[in-house]
TrEMBL record:
Keywords: ANK repeat, Repeat. This is F5/8 type C domain-containing protein. The keyword Metal-binding does not apply. InterPro entries: Ankyrin_rpt, Ankyrin_rpt-contain_sf, FA58C, Galactose-bd-like_sf. Residues 136-257 form the F5/8 type C domain. ANK repeats lie at residues 39-71. PROSITE patterns: ANK_REP_REGION, ANK_REPEAT. Coiled coil: none annotated.
Length: 454
């Protein structure tokens, strides 16, 4: 029943306040309509038409919109004219909806270290997905990635639907503390207007309403003219892995379009890490320096640690240990590849030009070399991955390696900790005879030809 839109309408028509309350508290939207209802009415239209003041108040508390019109172009306020008590409730709509966060059920409200204004998180493409249960827009070329890609020219377009609301689900990967949301929009009629934020423990729901917001027309005249103005909506106190943005209305356009989205928040795992190492007294110092995600910690250098700890040697040791633990846990190696691949041909006994192995961002695993063909090898065969801020990857550089005797050798690089993570050259490196006497040119070319034909 919780998944049926019709059940909410039936509860309202039967004037069953408790059933309607259960459905709304379980996450059903108060703004829905369903396709086979030619009237186009929302639950609020029906509650007003049947003169149910308590039901009207309940629906407003759960985000019901006064802007929705039915098939006769009637707003809820138009239907309230014969009912003075309901008119009074509608006039106080803003005040009623302002208390939505305090009356929601199931939402995990943050009880400790709640901040009215966490820093803006670095948006990640991994938060979004094109799966149907994650985004109602089905086009692969027009999807939620446009909102978090950092590109001023991209935008998300959602065609207005009559059977259900448009939505986007953001998956942070684990619980985040969210204090606000940023909408980057435009001044066109297609600009997002009313939207609802919901949370759940699973993508399949049930979803619980956290807050209803209204965005204004601000920024560029057209949604495809470039990035518009930012509108920040604060006051949230949510702890959740999943946040669902439900589009309730736009400013009169044929579709809903806007250019970007961001969240003000904190990675709850960062707070847990500080608790683990008894560093909560440095909590605000981390936040003030912009370290709000565990992923940020691998960029902390020795100078940052000293500033964080204000010269306290004991805290410096604790923070250093915490950073090491965070890097190991957060930046687990998943794959390896060659950045600069080993040279294809090289003289026997000469050192190979430098080649590099790259791994996941932040990883510091030890990488060793192995060789197919059993050559005699000279040089350092084990190096550690080093995080590189410019490329966003971790790199291990190998130089001074020499191979002999003449032959074909496949070079393999693998993780010392996880040997099953490895990469090898797609073609062998051919070690050829080093010619000291120029008179042996023909012999050398004959030898090279025989190697290539092995």
């Amino acid at each position: 029943m919780l998944r049926s839109i019709r059940s909410l309408f039936e509860a309202i028509r039967c004037k069953d306040l408790e059933v309607a309350r259960l459905l709304l508290e379980a996450g059903m939207s108060a703004t829905v309509t369903y396709a086979d209802d030619e009237s186009g009415e929302t639950p609020l239209h029906i509650a007003i038409r049947t003169n149910q003041p308590d039901m009207v108040r309940l629906l407003l508390q759960h985000g019901a919109s006064l802007d929705k019109v039915n098939s006769n172009k009637q707003r809820p306020s138009d239907l309230a004219i014969p009912f003075p008590a309901i008119q009074t409730i509608l006039k106080n709509c803003d005040e009623i909806q302002a208390f939505v966060p305090t009356i929601t059920y199931g939402t995990k409200i943050v009880a400790d270290h709640t901040c009215a204004d966490w820093p803006l998180l670095h948006s990640k493409l991994a938060w979004c997905s094109t799966e149907p249960n994650m985004c109602s827009t089905k086009s692969n070329s027009n999807n939620a990635y446009a909102l978090v890609d950092g590109n001023d020219k991209t935008y998300l377009e959602m065609t207005m639907r009559h059977d259900a609301s448009n939505f986007i689900v953001f998956d942070f990967g684990r619980d985040f503390l969210i204090s606000g949301i940023r909408i980057c929009g435009n001044s066109s009629p297609n600009m997002l207007k009313e939207f609802t934020l919901e949370t759940a423990d699973s993508v399949d729901g049930p979803w619980t309403i956290c807050r209803v917001f209204t965005a204004e027309q601000k920024g560029m005249d057209s949604y495809n003219a470039g990035r518009g103005d930012n509108q920040d909506f604060k006051g949230l106190k949510i702890k959740s892995r999943l946040i669902k943005l439900v589009v309730n209305s736009n400013h009169g356009g044929y579709s809903t379009c806007w250019n970007g989205i961001g969240f003000f928040g904190l990675d709850s795992k960062l707070r847990d890490l500080l608790k683990q190492f008894q560093l909560m007294h440095r909590f605000n110092d981390f936040i003030n320096m912009g370290f709000v995600q565990v992923k940020d910690l691998w960029m902390v250098n020795d100078a940052d640690v000293k500033r964080l700890c204000r010269g306290n040697a004991q805290d410096v040791a604790k923070v250093t240990e915490a950073l090491k633990a965070a890097r190991i846990e957060e930046n687990r190696l998943t794959s390896l590849d060659f950045g600069v691949a080993p040279i294809r041909f090289h003289p026997e006994g000469k050192r190979l030009p430098e080649f590099t192995v790259i791994g996941d961002a932040g990883c510091e695993d030890e990488i060793s070399l192995a060789f197919q063909g059993d050559p005699d090898v000279e040089g350092v065969l084990t190096k550690r991955l080093v995080p590189d801020l410019k490329s966003g990857r971790s790199i291990a550089s190998f130089n001074g390696i020499s191979l002999s005797p003449v032959g074909n050798y496949v070079i393999e690089a693998y993780s010392v900790a996880c040997p099953e993570i490895f990469v090898h050259t797609s073609e062998p490196t051919s070690i050829v005879f080093f010619m000291k006497d120029k008179g042996n040119v023909n012999d050398t070319f004959s030898e090279l030809d025989s190697i290539l034909n092995l």
